[in-house]
Amino acid sequence: MKICNRISYLLFTLIYISLHTVLNAQLKMLAEMSASIGNDVTIPCQLIQQPDNTTITQVQWTLQQPEKEDFPIIVCNSQYGVNIPKSRLSQRVKLAEQSLMIQAVEMADAGSYTCSISTFPSGKFEGTTKLVVEGEMVRLPRLIAFGVFLLINGAMIATTYFIIRRRRRKAVFEHRVYTDTVETLMLD
């Protein structure tokens, strides 16, 4: 009976410590954010409300794109330093504390970014942010504005051309009439 009570007490203590740690530490991330092509973006990831004795041992960011496998983007280990595996993002990413910074965002950078923070003794915390890259929509209004600009300028040029042509025609016609009238008057 004493062994059973002791096991129950240890189990209760372990559950309490685990729940206390989990309830006191949380990962703060956005569910979704957007970025424009060519701009830099920072995807926030922050461990908050951690106990004083908790140390971050590793921060890892992975990317999952639609219909593709997850691949690690950057890993920062307290013992081994920063490792950036070779990928199309490797020259454009860096960490700012636990947040991921991507320079010169491309359309192919869209996807779900997962931040994993390993701590001691609290364990591992994960969160995901969906990055939506906007760029094609930005080009459409510019294209429309350019088309409207060309249309207005074309209408102005055509109107000016027809006004000038009409005046020349009218001037030639009036000149002939005037000349004919003058010659007729001179003949009298």
Notes on the protein architecture:
This protein is of the alpha+beta class and 188 residues long. The protein has 2 domains: 133 residues, Immunoglobulins (Immunoglobulin-like, Sandwich), CATH 2.60.40; 54 residues. The chain contains 2 helices and 11 strands; from the N terminus they run H-E-E-E-E-E-E-E-E-E-E-E-H. Strands 2-11-10-5-6-7 form a 6-stranded mixed beta sheet. Strands 3-9-8 form a 3-stranded antiparallel beta sheet, with no helix packed on it. A two-stranded antiparallel sheet has the order 1-4. The protein starts with a helix and ends with a helix.
Write the layout of secondary structure elements.
Layout: H1 2-24, E1 26-29, E2 32-36, E3 41-43, E4 45-48, E5 55-64, E6 71-77, E7 81-83, E8 93-96, E9 99-102, E10 111-120, E11 123-134, H2 136-187
Give a quick precis of the structure.
Helices cover 40% and strands 35% of the residues. The protein has two helices and eleven strands, in the order αβββββββββββα. The protein has helices at 2-24, 136-187, and strands at residues 26-29, 32-36, 41-43, 45-48, 55-64, 71-77, 81-83, 93-96, 99-102, 111-120, 123-134.
Determine the CATH topology of the largest domain.
Immunoglobulin-like
The CATH architecture category of the largest domain equals: Sandwich
Number of E-state strands:
11
Number of domains: 2
User: CATH homologous superfamily of the largest domain - what is it?
Assistant: Immunoglobulins
